[in-house]
Design a protein that fits this description.
alpha+beta, three-stranded antiparallel beta sheet, two-stranded antiparallel sheet, 1 helix, 9 strands, about 30% strand, globular
Length: about 100
């Protein structure tokens, strides 16, 4: 189990290091007729030189599933706008997280 967690963390860090800074806000086309559960509180220790990307609820087509947060390298001159759900009329729309200047 520890091995799997370390591999997952390594892959997440590698993906964050290779990702290019985004300058556009992305809206994922997911709309659901009921709200997601309350956001989970993830307690993390400070890791100097890294940025924490918080977890969020994802819709898998049947129900909401929690996507855990992860560490990545910060992008100088940017701040991270976390993923979130917004009520739009009777539905809930998902907005993916993104880096913004």
């Amino acid at each position: 189990m520890k091995f799997l967690k370390s591999i997952t963390l390594s892959l997440a860090l590698a993906a964050g290091a290779l990702a290019l800074p985004a300058s556009a806000h992305v809206v994922v086309g997911v709309s659901v007729g009921f709200p997601p559960p309350p956001v989970r509180v993830e307690h993390v220790a400070v890791w100097p030189g890294h940025a924490w990307i918080p977890g969020y609820w994802r819709w898998n087509g049947v129900r909401h599933v929690w996507v855990a947060g992860y560490w990545t390298y910060p992008r100088p001159g940017y701040r991270y706008a976390p993923a979130h759900w917004v009520r739009t009329g009777p539905a809930w729309r998902f907005h993916a997280g993104y880096w913004v200047r």
